[in-house]
Design brief:
alpha/beta, Rossmann fold, 3 domains, four-stranded parallel β-sheet, 14 helices, binds 1,3-dihydroxyacetonephosphate, binds iron/sulfur cluster
């Protein structure tokens, strides 16, 4: 009987598809994907795709961003119900209200957001490039949406700017409490703490390093230490163990239930049936393209 990887390879050839997977999805899916990485890497891979179909193994905002960057290509999501709660934690109406009353303002939208939110924003960012991009903006006032925690991390690195927030967060990363990290440090005193900026400031303060998932992987791979406490979604342990087979990793973050909806069976079914196709209102997709392209330009 055909295994998952063999069936995926056969369907990919039949459908002229490229498979992109985020570090947080199922290990078998990561192992079989053409490109695996963090949100910034995958946005670049989507923008450069030459195939007729992009199969995006991630949550909805990732598939939407790939579609916005590739209006002429088919973008499939293995499970369109796999969404990101944080993506909805600000509304276009709130953004327009802040715009109307704030001069010298840039609206900076984390890529973990709805297409409607991107469409009213000036520039998108990911956790890999947010500091670089916000530092390069000429505006003094920064409305950072929808993640207050990534926003406060960027704020600390950009002291000349005035930040405004609307109160969003990642439920998975804020589930990690400073007490959990303190307990992990007691249990593993030699292990530095590597933390995603979506975590709470109190957790970031206990950390040796704060960065995106790709930056956490790079820090662990380059580090001289033999063990690490990891404060980001545990799917990343697959890549950490692949890159660093002799090091030990202690995860303290719970899984993201939405990322875990991307199962091998759903990946095959969507490519086999052409289900889960992303489609967006044309005007919204056009408006959301500008901030995504500006991100790719400024992050270079
Ligand atoms: P990065 O891929 O930018 O590290 O972000 C993590 C995340 O929460 C994706 O949903
Ligand atoms: Fe959204 Fe958090 Fe899940 Fe990432 S880990 S998809 S930010 S809920």
């Amino acid at each position: 009987m055909e295994g998952f990887a063999e069936e995926l390879a056969r369907l990919k050839a039949r459908e002229d598809a490229v498979v992109l997977a985020h570090y947080y999805v199922d290990e078998e899916v990561q192992a079989a994907a053409d490109f695996v990485g963090d949100s910034y890497y995958l946005a670049k891979a989507a923008a450069a795709a030459g195939q007729g179909t992009i199969l995006f193994c991630g949550v909805r905002f990732m598939g939407e961003s790939a579609k916005i960057l590739n209006p002429a290509r088919r973008v499939l999501l293995p499970d369109p119900a796999a969404d990101c709660a944080m993506a909805h934690m600000a509304s276009p109406e709130q953004v327009l209200a802040v715009r109307a009353r704030t001069p010298d303002l840039a609206v900076v939208c984390y890529i973990n957001s709805t297409a409607a939110l991107k469409a009213v924003s000036d520039v998108c960012v990911t956790s890999s490039n947010a500091v670089k991009i916000v530092s390069a903006l000429p505006e003094r006032n920064i409305l950072f949406i929808p993640d207050d925690n990534l926003g406060s991390f960027v704020q600390a690195a950009c002291p000349g700017k005035n930040f405004l927030f609307l109160g969003g967060h990642c439920p998975v990363h804020v589930a990690v409490r400073a007490e959990d990290v303190a307990a992990a440090r007691l249990a593993h005193p030699e292990a530095p703490v590597l933390t995603h900026p979506e975590c709470l400031p109190a957790v970031r303060e206990l950390s040796a390093f704060v960065g995106s998932t790709a930056e956490i992987v790079a820090r662990a791979a380059a580090g001289a230490e033999g063990e690490y406490i990891v404060c980001t979604e545990p799917g990343v342990l697959f890549e950490l163990r692949r890159r660093c087979p002799h090091k030990r990793f202690y995860p303290v973050t719970p899984p993201c239930a939405d990322m875990k909806r991307v199962t091998p069976a759903r990946v095959l079914a969507c490519l086999r049936d052409g289900s889960g196709e992303v489609s967006l209102p044309a005007a919204q997709a056009r408006a959301a393209l500008r901030p995504l392209e500006r991100m790719l330009e400024l992050a270079k």
